[in-house]
Structures are given as structure tokens and as C-alpha cells.
Structures
1.
Amino acid sequence: MDYIVLGLVVAFCIGYLFTRDTFTALLLSNFRYNISLDSDEQEDIRFSRTFLLTYTLAIFAYFITSSTTLLSPLPPILLGVSKPLVFVGVLGILLAWSTVRFFALRFIGWVIEHPSFTSLLERTGRDYAIMAGFAFIPFLLLFALLKISTGNALLIIGLTLVFLSCLFHAIRSLRIFLSAGFSVFFWILYLCTLEIIPLGVLIYLFAGIRL
């Protein structure tokens, strides 16, 4: 797993050269609605979002793989598989979830003939996921550098950040729905279908929760 950490560090350094000019704007858009409206799909911003989201998912995939609490017990399909391959599998699942969400929202936008509305929803979700991931990195580094026995501390911190990210995204998405003239009912339907249920499935898969 050491070379995965090295790869994440190198990827961050290289990616920073291309995303440093837009990273601040993407984070500010999470707190200022007007900035999120102006954050359109220009080529450099689109690349920054894609890279930062992929990097964020890689960070969470690494944590899930290295955790002694998550993926315990391992699903039968992963029994006997090396940690690096488990990391690749977890990252693949997270990327697949993100890709399905992207195309689902784009398809809905095409069906309702309101692509700018669903595009803003999709971008907003990505931005809050990025914020949660980069807020989690300092905790990972702190516990690693101090060589603290974390127990479930990092897991609690990670889940808290994910919860806060989802909460802020829900509030922002409600404003987007109301601004576009849609009712609260469609907002609830959107949350349940494309946010809560998929997230619940991921938690069930990775945390081994048996409902």
C-alpha cells in the first residue's frame, strides 16, 4: 500500500499545477450560491472538477481499504485478494457510482428539457464531495504523522464529514429546485432516488451493515 500513498502524493502535486487557479473558486461555490451559478462547464473548470473528484474518491478508497473496521468481513468475491487490488476495486465502485449519477442527471435533464438545472445539481454534488474529501486529508495526515492508534476515530470523522457534506448539498439542492420552479416533492424524490439510496447501498457494502 506504500506505493499507493506515493502515487496519491505525486498525483496531488501534479494535479495542483493544473487545478490551483480553480480550486478556490470551486470550494467557495459551496458557500456562495452566486458563485456556483457562475461556475459553468468551461474546459479548465471541468478538468479541475473531474480530477479533484477522482482524487477525493481515491482518498476515501484508500481509507476504506486500509481501515480495520470497514470491509470487515470482506465480501466473498474479495477473499484472498491483495490490498492494492481491493483498493482498485473500491475505487472502481466509487467511480462507477459517480459516473452513473452523472449520466442519470444528464438524462433527466434531457427528458425534462431543462439540462442547465440538472447540470447544476450534478456539479453541486461533486463540489461538496470534493470539499468533504479535502477536509478529511488533514486528519489522515495528522494521525499518520503522529502514529496515533486511531481506533474508530478516523471513521467517525469521515462519516461526520460525509454527513455534513450531504446536509449542505441537500440544503443547496433545495434552493436549486425552488429557484427552478420545482416543488419540494420533486426535491424529496431526487434525494431519495439519486442521493440517499445509493449512499445507503455504499455504506451497506463497505461498512458491512446488515439491516
2.
Amino acid sequence: MLTNQNKTLLRAFILFFGLLISYQAWSFGEPCFEVATKAGAQTYQPEPKRIASLLSLAQLPKEFELTLLERNGAWHIYQTTKSWFSPGTCAPLQREYEGKVYDFMPVLLNKQSGSSAVVIGSLIIKTYQEEDLYTMESTYGFKMLTQLPNPRMAIFDVKPTTSYDVLLETLENDKDIEYAVPLFSEPRYRTR
């Protein structure tokens, strides 16, 4: 028979693991959740019904049912009628129409600026040891774009991938990586 103290500990244990499991389930409950979390959940939120393309609305098939929301440099940000990304996916995607392939990128919302942030497939990676930075290309197939002033940090192109969410979780578990943070294409801050 369990004592009251043991019952309380058992309940706490069950509650703790229930919360842990529900967080993991939620982390892949919507596309780009992990990307938004790593970038700063207080600033960024997933927008599964937004996509970005370098093509204007006139260059895309009407059958895609897109609505132009905003421009972000060369990017056109569109609203879709339903999410084109499934839970756990957050990566470049291609849609084919009448034999032609169209490329799209996922988008987050910057809650502070109210503008869209295009997930461009680049990460800032900081390793614990300087030499570990140079193993990212051979280990993961990343391409180093820019060495940063800190000798343990660089910007990497991590495309192609099937999910930036899964990739960020993998990198979080890599014992040689201190952190990996996604980079976005966002409108520049405009002074008044």
C-alpha cells in the first residue's frame, strides 16, 4: 500500500512526464514551431498559412489561390487558404503545376514588428571548440557561408533539408554544438 507521501511523489512524477510528452507532441504540432522557439518564441510565431516566393502573383498559377500580403525585399509573402506544411515540416517546398515547378519558403510572423520573416535556410552555429566548427560540413553537409569574429561561430547554409524543426532538434543534441539559431529575411527597421 502506498503512503500519502509516495502517492504525492507518484502524481508529481506522472505530471512531470505528462508535461514533457505533451511539450514534445506540441513541438511538432504545427510547422516551424521549433524554428520559432529557437529564434525567440516571444518574438516569432509560426504562420503555417503563409509562404514566400521570389515570383510575383502574376507569375504564379491562379489555382494556388494565393493572396499577396506584403513584400520583403525580393520576397513576395502570400496567404494560402490552408497550410501547405504538415506538422513537423518546415522546409523549402516545391509545387508543380502543368509541368512547371514553383519554389516556396516557410514564413514566421515577427510579433514585435508585425511583418513576415522568411525562413531562408541559414543558421548561426556556435561550437564549444573552434575545431568543431569545421566539422559541420563533413558531419551534416552544411556549407559555411561566413566565419564570424568569434572563432567558434559561423553562418551555414543548411539546405536542402526536409525539416528545419527536426534539424534544429538534432543540432541541439549534438555534444559539440553550443547553439544553433535560424536566420531570416525580414524588412529592415525603418526610422521615423
3.
Amino acid sequence: MDNSKPIDIITVPSLQTYFFDVLSDFNRKAPCPIPQEIIYYSSDVLEKFALSGEFYDSREGRVREKILGTKLLEATLVSREEQKRIYKEVGDTALFLCGYFAESTQKKLVDANYYSQLGRSAYQNLNGVMPNFFDIPSFYSMLSTSFGPMVDLISKVASVDRFGNEHHLNFKRVMVSGSEMTPDEYAYSGITPNYEKKVS
């Protein structure tokens, strides 16, 4: 018999809003806060990977392999439009991997520092083919420079999500308001809804 208590669910307008709020909270406490535009961009990256299911294999409980170094090298052989896509994909994946799943690199031949360098390089290269974002010149260069501090913020979010030791936040307690999940989908996600008590 499972004696675990049901998980209360926090409803949010979107996962991006959830990640933006949590990242912003940690950012305010940081000695050198990161620009809000980078926090916004990073919260969008977190939402993308959280919803896609392409990065983390929940059935096997492990991160899916991504050959980022090879992708970064291949980008030099393709069109400018394809370069934009590849550089963004490599940078975003490295940011998510280093921040959210850094421990998954510890048993590999290369560590988080390797992926961090790939991410920085990818964003710097992306700046060369698409420098503006949010009407900010050299946005991706700024993102490359802020890669390390951004990884630190995301790792704090990951720690909260896994252990629920701050702000009473846990990713499994977050549900996008208006989303319709079946009981089986809740169970697959590890969520036990408590329909009598929702926090909004």
C-alpha cells in the first residue's frame, strides 16, 4: 500500500512563467545579477526542454545522449539559416544540460566544463550570424558571457525541483492552468493530484 501523501498542485499560466519567476527570484539574490532578457530567454529554453521530452528519458531515468561537439563542427558546412538553427540548438542544449543535468556528465569522458565551452562557443557563433534578439545588439554574445552565471541559476532551480527545499517548489507540483491531462498522464509524470486543494 502506498502511504505517500498526495502532491498539491501549483497552477501557473505557463511553464515559462514558472521558470522565469523562480530564476528571477534567485537572480535578485545573486551578487552580480544577470540582465532580465537573459533570464527570460533561459526560462524559454527550460520550458522547451521540459515539454519536449526529447532530452530526458523518464522511463529509463536518464538523459538522452546528444553529440553536441559534432553538431557544432558540422555547422560550418551548412547554409546561414541552418547555422542559426544548429548554433541555437547546441547552445540551448548545453545550457540545459549544464544547469539541470550537470551530474549526468560526471560518468562520461567529457565533463560539464566541456559542454559549457560548447555552449559558449555556440552562442558566440550564433551572434556572428544573428546578433540581435529582443532588439538588443550582440544579445547572443552577452548570453555567451553570462553562460556560467546562468548555469548556476538553473542548477539552483534544479535543486529546488528535485528536493523541494526552497520556496516549497517542486516541478512535479506545477501544472499549466488550462491544460487537460488524463489521470494516466498525471501518474506517468509522477503527479498525484489533490483536487481539493489547489494553489494558484
